[in-house]
Structure formats: structure tokens, C-alpha cells
Amino acid sequence: MGVDVVGLTSTHIGEGVGLLGDIYRLTLTYGDGAEGPPTLILKFPTTAPEYRGVADALAYFTREVQFYQRAAADAPFNTGKCHLAVMADDSTDFVLVLEDLSYLTAPDQLEGLSATQAEAAITSIAKHHAQWWNHDDLAELELPYLPVAADIYQAVLPDMFRASWAACKAAVPELVAHPEVSAFGDRYAELIPTMMPSIDQPRTWVHGDLRADNLMFGADGAPTMLDFQIMGQSVGTYDVAYLMSQSVPVEIRRNHEDTIVRAYHQQLVDSGVTDYSWEQCWEDYRLCLAFCLIYPVTGYDKLDELNERGRALIDTMLERSVQA
Predict the structure, then answer these.
(1) What is the distance in angstroms between the CA of the first residue and the CA of the last residue of the chain?
(2) What tens digit of pLDDT does each residue of 257-277 get?
(3) Is the pLDDT at 18 greater than 70, yes or no?
(4) pLDDT tens across 239-248, in order?
(5) 3 state SS of 226
(6) Rounded distance, CA 211 to CA 245, Å?
(7) Residue 144 phi/psi, 5° resolution?
(8) What is the pTM of this model?
């Protein structure tokens, strides 16, 4: 049964943050006797052709729409309510109508997460990882949820990193001057064929972009997760390392890293994972820390497209990643 909406206004939000989506907050007015949420979030694909091409090639929009259609309701973490998730039959045009979560607290990735917030997010995603741990259905999910060692990534990422690494060293030489960091960055592209298969197993369904700007927290500290466009398949510590190395301030990570990663492993065990030792978890975490250097580095290849906050964000992410 339809609801009588007699008026609405829209406000563009998230500019300079969500490059792959145009996001609006709708404020709705209802007819006499009609009830509904006072506001909703509307998400469309980006209109920027350079980003749209990448998103289409890697099926980012399809990943998010299908997650809401087929898995969000059963996910063991909070996602907020999805009222509508549809995609065109003849293109990747889509629309998402989502619950407005502005009543939750949104952390700032520049400020970084507290140890309590990081542990809450990581133990929450661990339940999802356990749910999909070496699951029989992962093979049929490979399209669109690509494994981290997929051929397209191994073909594209080495050249992408080389160009971005040169730009990174030119832009912020002081952040990558440590001899071990500099040497690792110089070899990173040639190490990709070794690193990527090493973090591909044991395989689960990962968020892929688990960072502070994609999290919100309730008054009870429970996290809600956003933005599922980069979901894929890899070892679960991929999400852990990405969050810890780029969304947690250096000193907080150093002081709480062992405790938080052990809490992740314990949650896997408590959720039924029986074939994954702590020693293997820690080794996978270290490998993923190394691999995740690619995220801030690739931001330096298009510095002229970043706003002030975007530039500050990649500098901060790079410094944290290098220290990790």
C-alpha cells in the first residue's frame, strides 16, 4: 500500500567523500494521516565519467546493490534499513533508498577511531567472516565479488602502483623516506604476484573498504557499516589490517594492536571457525598490512582532483600505513 507523500526537498551530501556515488538526503512531507520516516538517503551512481568507468569495469555498483538485495537482511552486523535497491536491466544505473542514520555518531577518519571503536568494528565484521568462511557459495559469488587474487587485479595493480608510488615520493618524500619503507615501495609492484595469492586463502566475504568514514556508532557503541561497493573475497584479516593501518592513530594501534587482533581471532573461534590458528591469523594480518599500503599510495596519482580534506586524508592514511 502506498504512502501519501505531498512534498519533499533534497540536499546533496558527502561531496568530496564518496567519489563513486552521488548521495542526497530527502526530507519528506506526508499527507493527512500518513506516516513514514521524516528523512531518507538516496544514492545514485557518480556522474564523473573517469570514476564511472572504473566502477563499471569492476562491478562496484552491482556489488552494493546485490549485497542489499541478497545478503544485508541476514548479515550479522548492522547495516541500516534499505527501503529499495534496484538496478537497470541494460546498464549499471541504480538507485538505493536507505535509512537516514544521522542519529548515530559518525567518526572522522582524520581524527581516527578509538581502541574501543576499532575493536567493536573488527569483532562485528568477524561474525560476517565466520558466516562465509570457506563457504560453498563463495564460488558463485565471484561475479561480482572478485577474489583479491583475480587476474584483473594482478594485471592492473602493478602499473597503477608504480605510477602512484612515483607521485607519492614526489609529493611527500618525508613520509616514505625510511630506508625499509622506501625499499619496500620500490619493490611493491614486483611483489604483487606473491602477495595477492598469499592473502587469498582461507577465503571469506570481506567488506573491502572497512574504514572510519564507512562506520557509524550507536549510543551503546555498536557499529553500523556503510558502503558495500568494494566487497570481495580474501582472507578476513584484509578488513582488519585495512582498518587498523589507516583508520586508527599510530599510538592507539601500537598500544592495542595485539589485543584487538586477538579479539578478532577469538570471535572467529566463538563463531565456529575451527581450522585457523592464532599464529596463522597474525601472519595473515602482517601480510595484509603490507598489501594495504597500496590504498593511500594510489591517492597521490590524482592530487589535483582532491579537495582539502581528501588531501589531508591520504597523507594521514599514508603516515599510519607506513608506521604499521
Answers:
(1) 53
(2) 999 999 999 999 999 999 999
(3) no
(4) 999 999 999 9
(5) coil
(6) 10
(7) -100, 0
(8) 0.94
Question: What letters, b where the CB count within 10 A reaches 16 and e where it falls short, cover 141-154?
Answer: beebbbbbbbeebe
The length of the chain, given as a count of residues: 324
| CB neighbourhood size of 258 (10 A) | 10
Q: Which residue has the cell 558527502?
A: 14
Q: Are 295 and 317 in contact (CB under 8 A)?
A: yes
Helices (H), the chain: 49-57, 60-70, 115-131, 138-141, 151-171, 179-198, 237-246, 250-270, 278-291, 294-298, 308-323
Number of other CB atoms surrounding residue 52 within 10 Å = 16
**Hunting for cell 538516496 — which residue is that?**
42
The cell numbers describing 36, all together, are: 513514514
Q: Are 223 and 120 within 8 A, CB to CB?
A: yes
Q: How far is CA 93 from the centre of its chain?
A: 21
% residues pLDDT > 90 (the chain)? 88
Query: Quick check: bond before 144 cis, omega within 30?
Result: yes
Round the CA-based radius of gyration of the chain to a whole number and report it: 20
Q: Provide the strand spans (E) within 153-274.
A: 204-206, 215-217, 223-225, 232-234
Whether the ω angle into residue 202 lies within 30 degrees of 0, i.e. cis, is: yes
Contacts of residue 159, Cβ cutoff 8 Å, sequence gap at least 6: 189
Residue 173 scores a pLDDT above 60 = yes
The residue written with cell numbers 599510538 in the block is: 251
* Whole-number Å distance between alpha carbons of 216 and 212: 8
Which three cell numbers mark 167?
A: 607521485
DSSP letter for 107, please: P
Residue 285 CA to chain centroid, in angstroms?
16
